Amino acid sequence: MWLFSRKGPSGFSASSTAEDVTQEIDATGLTAIVTGATSGIGIETARVLALRGVHVVMGVRNIEAGKEIKETILRNNSTAKIDMMELDLSSMESVRKFTSQFNSRSLPLNILINNAGIMATPFKLSKDNIELQFATNHIGHFLLTNLLLETMKQTAIKQKKEGRIVNVASRRHKLSYSEGIRFDKINDESGYNSLSAYGQSKLANVLHANELARYLKIKLGETNL
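Request: output the structure for the sequence above.
Response:
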């Protein structure tokens, strides 16, 4: 359809692929973490970043699925630098373990893509007793970002290259509960609506990204980076 092929100011359209928009980019020397790299957007993001020379660390909940994706990527791109580490975003313990293991490897970190998520699930609490969609889609990524932020800042200073943190949101963020984020009712099963709860978690992603951009602009200004 013409609507999807119509190019915007960037020169790309809704039908442009990840390979299209990264063509002629040499990202050798960069390191990226991609969460939820065993399906959909996560797989394609990991694949194309590796294709462009990025050292990709896949944060995956399902280790067996992660192994299959890694093998597929390597089969089609034998020079790909790609690793896999266990990460369950619904568990703060798992997030802390992941970041501890990653930082212990003394790797740089240029790109963090917070992609993993679940959608419209029946009401359930996480291991930390937080509504599961909010825990997985927002809280887990919020904690992950905070725990990796210093590594990203030090990488940016050392390499003199700005890093990138990407929160994968959804237009569903416009369709949260009527009050937006129900801070006092996150775990209220009686008023739970699976799609509104998903929208709530995506709204939190957007607000997190906005505040992070504001905070980092101030901090980077202070360091003259």
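DSSP finds seven helices and five strands in the chain.
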